[in-house]
């Protein structure tokens, strides 16, 4: 069964719009888990626009399901600009402190609107390898955020990644436009097959939703999808438990 990891970034975005503690992030995580989520994903960015370092600490203390922390491994410390909110300690510093189940490295700039590309291992393999080695020594499963490029899967394995996370925005766009869906899916399928051949696990995420997931879930060897934005929007319409159950039902093939 493909694991569903619910990303809580957008819940934190609502919370941060006031000096408040609601929605309570750990309580929302537990509601998702009670509804069937297999894991929780967060993406603490240096500006702490949504998920904060303190949220990651609170989640690490209570989660009994897989905890996936995503982010730019080269993001350094940044002072908080909000009263009562801890500073951002740096991405790898936070991962060292919390040792989540999984750490997904993402090549985001500090001020990007959202994640919008994967690593280019032809340029970045050398700087990533020691981080992957360190994650392994910490007992943290590593995953590299990657575009659907089959040729780079062997490099990901060679430098020590446990998994890759396929960046799926291009597939979401193809489905939403009804254009080149088969061609786009084939590129993801070829990349997944290359990853499996290299001994990597295959995760996927970004802009997956109830329209495109019924197609994407057929990907060979898919282990986990992390979904936040669309699931949160669906929850505004049908409620969080029903939204989680809807995604679970798609992944179960029903
Ligand atoms: C890496 C990725 O595609 C998402 O996990 C990311 O968390 C999206 O970040 P925002 O929620 O800040 O758009
Ligand atoms: N890694 C993808 C993720 O965690 C959530 O992405 P999205 O569903 O918010 O686009």
UniProtKB/TrEMBL annotation:
The molecular function terms in GO held by this entry are: pyridoxine 5'-phosphate synthase activity
Q: Which keywords does the record carry?
A: Cytoplasm, Pyridoxine biosynthesis, Transferase
Name-wise, this protein is Pyridoxine 5'-phosphate synthase
Query: Which residues carry out catalysis?
Result: 43 (proton acceptor), 70 (proton acceptor), 206 (proton donor)
Residues annotated to bind 3-amino-2-oxopropyl phosphate: 7, 18, 207, 228-229
CDD domains for this protein: PNPsynthase (cd00003)
Gene name, Swiss-Prot/TrEMBL: pdxJ
> Is the Zinc-finger keyword given for this protein?
no
Q: Which residues bind 1-deoxy-D-xylulose 5-phosphate?
A: 45, 50, 114
Q: Does the keyword Cytoplasm apply?
A: yes
């Amino acid at each position: 069964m493909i694991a569903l990891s619910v990303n809580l970034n957008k819940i934190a975005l609502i919370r941060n719009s006031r000096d408040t503690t609601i929605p309570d992030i750990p309580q929302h995580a537990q509601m998702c888990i009670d509804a069937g989520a297999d894991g929780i994903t967060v993406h603490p960015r240096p500006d702490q626009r949504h998920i904060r370092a303190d949220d990651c600490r609170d989640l690490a203390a209570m989660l009994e399901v897989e905890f996936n922390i995503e982010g730019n491994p080269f993001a350094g410390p940044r002072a908080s600009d909000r009263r009562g909110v801890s500073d951002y300690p740096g991405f790898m510093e936070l991962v060292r402190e919390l040792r989540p189940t999984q750490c997904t490295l993402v090549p985001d700039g500090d001020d990007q609107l959202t994640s919008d590309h994967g690593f280019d291992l032809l340029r970045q393999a050398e700087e990533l390898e020691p981080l992957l080695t360190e994650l392994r020594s910490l007992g943290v499963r590593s995953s590299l955020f990657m575009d659907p490029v089959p040729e780079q899967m062997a490099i990901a394995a060679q430098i020590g990644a446990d998994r890759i996370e396929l960046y799926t925005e291009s597939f979401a766009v193809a489905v939403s436009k009804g254009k080149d869906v088969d061609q786009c899916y084939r590129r993801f399928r070829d990349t997944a097959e290359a990853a499996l051949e290299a001994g990597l696990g295959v995760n996927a995420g970004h802009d997956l939703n109830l329209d495109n997931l019924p197609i994407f879930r057929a990907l060979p060897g898919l282990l986990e999808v992390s979904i936040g934005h669309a699931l949160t929007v669906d929850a505004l319409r049908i409620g969080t438990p029903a939204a989680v159950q809807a995604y679970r039902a798609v992944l179960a093939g029903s």
